[in-house]
Design brief:
Radius of gyration of chain A: 14 Å
Helix content of chain B: under 10%
Number of helices of chain B: 0
Strand content of chain B: over 45%
Order of helices and strands of chain B: EEEEEEEEEEE
Number of strands of chain A: 11
Largest interface: A-B, 20 and 23 residues
Distance between the termini of chain A: 40 Å
Helix content of chain A: under 10%
Oligomer: heterodimer
Structural class of chain A: mainly beta
Structural class of chain B: mainly beta
Shape of chain B: globular
Strand content of chain A: over 45%
Number of strands of chain B: 11
Radius of gyration of chain B: 13 Å
């Protein structure tokens, strides 16, 4: 069964750091495009970052320079290192797998999410 | 950046109703549009991709149409399990979502 399980969320003070993990089963993370998407309380969905199968990484402007996406192929796990956290980063963070071809990819499998709260 | 606008924001309907949600893109995205369903406290679930392709396992009462800048999601006969929030997402250039449409019980 294809599954994604996020962990690592919690309460963190502004300016702090946190690393989220997303363990995959049923498929190989390194062979797929993978993303992080977040949802602030009561708000809509916001794409945060992507890592392509070739290893290239891209970020939304709102997190560029503060967040880093990576993966550990031996653990089949995706990560999101979040530094210099702000109150506006408070959200449920989902990891998602992409499907598609050529240049056009959509998110077909989602984890259940992990909650990050940035507050003093 | 491509902006996605959904209407209405909230929709009140009864079981058995035909429901239509509209999504407009700020520029042409061809057919590179997906629809997701999200229930409270749960992850989004893919319903439709490439504007009109039904994801495996999704009931056939869900359908999508459109191209360019205007798209619709239709539920032909609303079921109790369909009360949820629906999001459109463009994947023509990076990924952006609509603000969501909440389908609630009338």
């Amino acid at each position: 069964e294809v599954q994604l399980v996020e962990t690592g969320g919690g309460l963190i003070q502004p300016g702090g750091s946190l690393r989220l993990s997303c363990a995959a089963s049923g498929f190989t993370v390194s062979s797929n495009y993978m993303s992080w998407v977040r949802q602030a309380p009561g708000k809509g969905l916001e794409w945060v970052s992507v890592i392509y199968s070739g290893g290239s990484t891209y970020y939304a402007d709102s997190v560029k320079g503060r967040f880093t996406i990576s993966r550990d192929n031996s653990k089949n796990t995706l990560y999101l290192q979040m530094n210099s956290l702000r109150a506006e980063d408070t959200a449920v963070y989902y990891c998602a797998r992409y499907s598609g071809n050529y240049y056009y990819y959509y998110m077909d499998v989602w984890g259940k999410g992990t909650t990050v709260t940035v507050s003093s | 950046d491509i902006q996605m606008t959904q209407s209405p924001s909230t929709l009140s309907a009864s079981v058995g109703d035909r429901v239509t949600i509209t999504c407009r893109a700020s520029q042409s995205i061809s057919s590179w549009l997906a629809w997701y369903q999200q229930k409270p406290g749960k992850a989004p679930k893919l319903l439709i991709y490439k504007a009109s392709s039904l994801e495996s396992g999704v009931p056939s009462r869900f359908s999508g149409s459109g191209s360019g800048t205007e798209f619709t999601l239709t539920i032909s006969s609303l079921q109790p399990d369909d009360f949820a929030t629906y999001y459109c997402q463009q994947y023509n250039s990076w990924w952006t979502f609509g603000q969501g449409t909440k389908v609630e019980i009338k």
